[in-house]
Here is the input.
Amino acid sequence: MIVTDDDLVSFIRILKDGGGYDLSEYSDKSLKRRLEKVSEDSRLPFNQFLSNIKTNKEFAEKVLKDITVNTTELFRDPVMWQQLRHRILPRFKGNKTINIWHAGCSTGQEVYSMIILLNEMGMLDKAKIVATDINGDVLDMARKGAYKYRFNIGYLDNFDKVIRHNPFNYEEVIDVPYEKYFEISKVKDTLAIRKEYTDIPFFRKHDLVQDGTFVYAKFDLILCRNVIIYFNNSLQNKVFGLFHQNLYSNGCLVLGAHESILGPWSSRFEKNGTFYFKK
Here is the structure.
């Protein structure tokens, strides 16, 4: 089906009334595309689809989970992780503690990528890691740290590029076996993060749009990758303000490869690629 502007307005209003979720400042284009797919998958007439959201909170919750995008992978965008390893994280080596927030963490692969990287750099014992998402189901998956092996096998190449190789010295190859961090069963098709690492991060449900600040400590590093691309300019600026408030001076915000700070908050950060340092 084709979602009209009026359909979108009705959906946003009913989802807010029925489920308490405010998508009014999401990008219309992205939201329409997702809504068309989710409503078609429900196999309900659109009026009935909206009625169910209004009268059934569980259905409203499911629609929200289906609307929000939950794409992630181990060491996604290896070049970013290489820069994080060799140019960004060393800035914090002298800290007594390193506070890190993964905002929009989805099923947690990025969180565990960070844990692996910090461990290889000898910095994990200093780290306090918080990971949040609006979707409670993906947070449950993240806490378990158990994934499909066949789906993730290709991402082990990312592990090699970031953990085993040094892009600034190609002759350096570090022998880090997968078994150090993963329990892999090809028969069961599972790739599970070892328990000593799943116990480290604190996962919490959090809505960037409505919940605001949720901890009393500030962060040295905030990663919010491929999330704000789905927000309109007004909401992006609201979220950048939240991140700026929650960063230490000279703390670093990491965005996705196709995201940037263009509005009034751009003058409050110093840009270096996808890395933004609080002035």
Remarks:
- The chain has a mean pLDDT of 90.
